[in-house]
Amino acid sequence: MIKKHPELGRRRGEALRWRLVFLDGDGPLNMGLDEAILNSVSRGESPPTLRLYAFKPSAVTIGRFQRVRESVDLDAARRLGVPVVRRITGGGSVYHDELGEVTYSVVAPVRLFPGSILDSYRVICSGLVKALDILGLRAQFVPVNDVVVNGKKISGSAQVRRAGALLQHGTLMYATDLDTLASLLRAPREKLESHGVSSIRERVTTVSIELGRGISREEVQEAMLRGFEEALGAEFQRGEPTDRELAEAERLARERYGREAWNLGR
Amino acid sequence: MGAARVRRRCVGGKTVDVEVEVEAGRLRRVVISGDFFAYPEGALEAFEESLSGVEPSRDEVLKVIRKFGIEFLGASAEEIADMIAEAAELAEREGGPG
Fold first, then answer.
1. Confidence of residue B98 (pLDDT cuts 50, 70, 90)
2. Which residue of chain A is at minimal alpha-carbon distance from B45?
């Protein structure tokens, strides 16, 4: 059962217009652009925005509050040439496989999500649940921020709120190389035990594995658009980041997400 | 001075590490890390800073959390305060009196 966006109900089915952005980048630029869009939406300069993107090259992102050495195998990252970037959002470490996952970000005024913070996770993640349903998989939202299929994690999300706006970004794995993922990410023994597994590898899955067939990125993105359309009560209109957003994204990539002081600093 | 670390899998589902240094019966430095969420943005860092000099009891720490209005997801304010108090006790034992 998909929860409709509350404002949609009030408008009797009239969809809200959202900007839809497709723009890939490397780790620092991707994180810079998400933050720049957050700032722009919070200033009222940009409409609510859904962005779908890839990390080129593949990268690991870690949560704002994580100890880097607890969450990533830095030797493996160096060996594989995978950059590590800290997000402004909390949560855990994520492997963004250039060829196997779609990253989304939802940026909107907080007033569009009138319930609790957890409610807003549920509403946004229901777009992913719906997308997986369209692809033929039965998925569940598991609070706080996971979407699972057959008990395994297929998507994780993380949200930050700043000056009246929220940014939630997350991953949907459709063909992620899970062996590489498992060699890069670390999880505390306590966390794995609580999920009843002994390694990260056992705890994750992909759309392709669950469907038992290959699937194209386009097919996954199309399902995500339809899922978010329904969950957010949104009507997407293809757009581009503004010049100011792009300039700010590049500045943030340089001054924050490209620096060890931020990425390795906790 | 003593230092100690406590890790807990919180009821809300996230793993939290608390590292503390204590000196003369007061918190000196506290770092809270893990895969949890804390709102509003920046409040957790401000909270950590302001714990310096605070008596390491659950109630005193909870007061500071409430002052900052921090909302945790995946962990609770009570769990975090418990962990800080527990780590401080370990740190004091390790560091000896004073």
1. very low
2. A65
Q: Tell me which residue in B8, B13, B36 faces A65 most closely, judged by beta carbons.
A: B36
Query: Which residue in the set B33, B39, B74 is minimally distant from A66, CB to CB?
Result: B33
Q: CATH number of the domain that A257 lies in? A: 3.30.930.10
Q: Is A142 among the domain residues?
A: yes
**What is the average per-residue pLDDT within A86-99?**
98
A191/B9 Cβ within 8 A:
yes
For B40, nearest residue in chain A (alpha carbons): A161
Q: Mark out the alpha helices in chain A (DSSP H runs).
A: 6-10, 27-42, 68-71, 74-80, 117-134, 178-184, 189-194, 207-211, 217-232, 243-252, 260-263
Instruction: Count how many domains chain A has.
Output: 1
Architecture of domain B2-95: 2-Layer Sandwich (3.30)
Domain boundaries, chain B: 2-95
pTM of the model: 0.94
State which residues form the domain around A124. 6-263
* Calpha distance A262→A83 (Å, rounded): 13
- Residue listed under structure tokens 């706006």: A165
